């Protein structure tokens, strides 16, 4: 019986994807792993060396889904918000996490400093956004505490 994906026994369709995702960090020391071997499932040819990493391979399935939704929405975070069923700040935070993981954004996004009244959203504005669904209760609690 031939097994799909084994050398010389047939081809695996590109859309099927791998059975397992390759780890991006070493399980022993935690350092980043590099790709050093590539192989052809059809003929068994192997190439060895140090290859450029795939910046998308380290993303989780949820992060890849977020990126697909963002691209399909042509970069419109309001559309991402609607598709994922989350508030705008949550959609923005998730997208920022993806950018950070890919090394495209700083890990510490500056937060607005607490200043005199009128510079940030008021308690009433925050509660109104929770009531409208624009903010989650956890996000509101964070804003009110900060």
Summarize the helices and strands and which ones pair or pack:
Elements: E1 35-39, E2 46-51, H1 61-72, H2 77-84, H3 88-101, H4 123-132, H5 137-145
Antiparallel strand pairs: 1-2
Helix pairs in contact: 1-3, 2-3, 4-5
Short summary:
This protein is mainly α and 146 residues long. The chain contains five helices and two strands; from the N terminus they run ββααααα. A two-stranded antiparallel sheet has the order 1-2.
Give a written overview of the molecule.
- It holds the Pfam family Zn_ribbon_DUF2089.
- Residues 13-23 have a biased composition (Basic and acidic residues).
- This is DUF2089 domain-containing protein.
- It is built from five helices and two strands.
- Mean pLDDT is 76; it is low at 1-15 and 109-118.
- The chain is elongated.
- It is mostly helical and 146 residues long.
- A two-stranded antiparallel sheet has the order 1-2.
- Strand 1 and strand 2 (46-51) form a beta hairpin.
- Helix 4 (123-132) runs antiparallel to helix 5.
- It has a domain at 23-51.
